[in-house]
């Protein structure tokens, strides 16, 4: 996946990028939205990504500049490209979408069989388990600071 971004702010510790809105990926023909990237990098950031240039900024940043791309001559409002590794993005999609679905199903069955063992209506237990699974997965996703950092190749 290749995206375009504009440099909003650059200093010695961090670079702030804004993904170009409605920019079609240059390597594909589908006109998909940036929903997965929004979900991956926190929906409230409005297509703004931070890139850590040193180790102390890595915990709070979305991406890491491992190839020292930003040590060259770059200035504010430059447009650069980001090439995301497809395999790594697929693995992240499995984690971000597959694990909550697995949690929904597990909690549904746990609620169902728990209510059945307690001689209550097992269908209601399944629905309650499903709701608990939804709330638990939402809590786990939103409570985690930025941990998933895909490998990105930057280019001009």
Give the biggest sheet: 6 strands, mixed
Structural class: alpha+beta
The chain-level mean pLDDT equals 78
Order of helices and strands: EEHEEEHHE
Low-confidence sequence ranges: none
Extended strand count: 6
**Strand adjacency order, main sheet:** 4-3-2-1-5-6
The percent of residues in helical segments reads 25-40%
What characteristic shape results from the CA principal axes? Answer: elongated
Tell me the Rg in angstroms. Answer: 20 Å
Give the count of helical stretches. 3
Domain unit count: 2
β-strand percent reads 15-25%
Distance between the termini: 16 Å
Keywords:
156 residues, 38% helix, alpha+beta, six-stranded mixed β-sheet, 2 domains
Describe the 3D structure.
With 156 residues, this protein is α+β, with helices and mostly antiparallel strands. It has two domains: 2-85 and 150-155, no CATH class; 90-143, no CATH class. 38% of the residues lie in helices and 21% in strands. It has three helices and six strands. It has helices at residues 35-40, 86-117, 122-143; strands at 2-10, 14-19, 48-52, 63-64, 79-84, 152-155. It has a six-stranded mixed beta sheet. Helix 2 runs antiparallel to helix 3 (122-143).
């Amino acid at each position: 996946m290749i995206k375009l971004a504009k440099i909003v702010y650059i200093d010695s510790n961090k670079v702030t990028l804004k993904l170009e809105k409605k920019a079609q990926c240059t390597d594909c023909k589908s006109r998909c939205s940036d929903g997965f990237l929004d979900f991956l990098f926190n929906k409230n950031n409005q297509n703004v990504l931070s890139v850590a240039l040193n180790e102390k900024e890595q915990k709070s940043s979305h991406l890491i500049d491992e190839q020292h791309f930003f040590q060259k001559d770059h200035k504010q409002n430059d447009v650069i490209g980001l090439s995301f590794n497809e395999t790594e993005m697929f693995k992240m999609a499995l984690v971000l979408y597959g694990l909550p679905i697995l949690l929904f199903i597990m909690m549904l069955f746990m609620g169902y069989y728990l209510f059945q063992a307690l001689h209550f209506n097992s269908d209601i237990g399944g629905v309650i388990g499903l709701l608990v699974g939804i709330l638990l997965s939402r809590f786990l996703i939103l409570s985690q600071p930025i941990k998933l950092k895909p490998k990105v190749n930057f280019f001009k």
